[in-house]
Amino acid sequence: MITLGAALLVVGTLLVREPAAGWEVDVFRLFNDLPHSVEPVLWGLQQMGSAVVLPIVAVVMWVWLKRWQPPVVLLAGGFFLGWWAAKGIKAIVDRGRPAALLDEVELGFDVPMEGFGFPSGHAVLAFTLAAALAPYLSRRWRIAVYAIAIGVALTRIYVGAHMPLDIVGGAGWGLVIGSLVAIAASSRLLNRGQSALVRRA
């Protein structure tokens, strides 16, 4: 996952340009032009990539695993390597949000028009959580958490917050951070003989 994540981040960074490539604009329009009547329903899904979810998931991990190391590692990695490092990458790549790059962008509720777009912070955190939780879950639940992460990322295009490459880069960085969190936590768990959270599919 670390290799895949790094590849997505690097490829996304290399492909980013202004004005945006035609194919990226087409993909953006495909989602952003969809009817926005369902946006209130998707608002909750977007929150799965917000910073407030990290401490909530950390508490759940602590209660479920009965160990303090995994949630602490998740919080540290998610906030410092995920959230704050993503801001550093944004400043380096220096790419605007869709409303600054394109005309007639359909903006969702509370979506900023200005600021840096690459990588998507919501995608970073959603994929960080998915990769960090995956080792403790059954195959069915792993598919579910990654599906949620993908849903968060696509919804950010839908509401006009990010271009497609923004979420590709965000997903990549999130996979890197989440995998590092899982490795750091699992080394302690394995030493203590901790089993997976969910065994039954």
Shape: globular
CATH architecture: Up-down Bundle
The secondary structure category is mainly alpha
Q: Report the β-strand fraction as a percent range.
A: under 5%
The CATH topology comes to Vanadium-containing Chloroperoxidase, domain 1
Highest CATH level, the class: Mainly Alpha
CA gyration radius, whole angstroms: 17 Å
Low-confidence stretches: 189-201
Notes on the protein architecture:
The chain is an all-alpha fold. It has one domain: Vanadium-containing Chloroperoxidase, domain 1. Helix 2 crosses helix 8 and helix 8 (139-158) runs antiparallel to helix 9. The chain is built from nine helices and no strands.
Topology:
Elements: H1 2-15, H2 22-32, H3 39-46, H4 53-65, H5 69-93, H6 98-101, H7 121-133, H8 139-158, H9 164-191
Helix pairs in contact: 1-9, 2-8, 4-5, 5-7, 5-9, 7-8, 7-9, 8-9
Put the structure in a nutshell.
The chain has helices at residues 2-15, 22-32, 39-46, 53-65, 69-93, 98-101, 121-133, 139-158, 164-191. By secondary structure, it is mainly alpha-helical.
